[in-house]
Amino acid sequence: MYPSTITSLLLSSSVLFLGLTTAFPVAVEKECQPRIICVDSINACGIRYGGCYDVCDRAAKPVAPACPSTTKPARPTPSVNTCNHTNPSIC
Q1: How far apart are CA 91 and CA 25, in angstroms?
Q2: Does residue 49 fall inside a structural domain?
């Protein structure tokens, strides 16, 4: 065989092989491959959060904590002290 014939056959075989792999792609596994990743993040109000989790378990992914409320807690009502100052030991 001549070198040009060999090259032509190799090229034809390569094109045929590539065409078949395109027409019949290899089946992709539907099962998740367990992998642990770690995440460090900061939520919208600057609170850090994160942790390590398995990428196959979406429920284990760290969730950003809620931002604290901007409303102030109610002040306690002042109580009236009815202490008898003549005898401070009973106050």
Answers
A1: 87
A2: yes
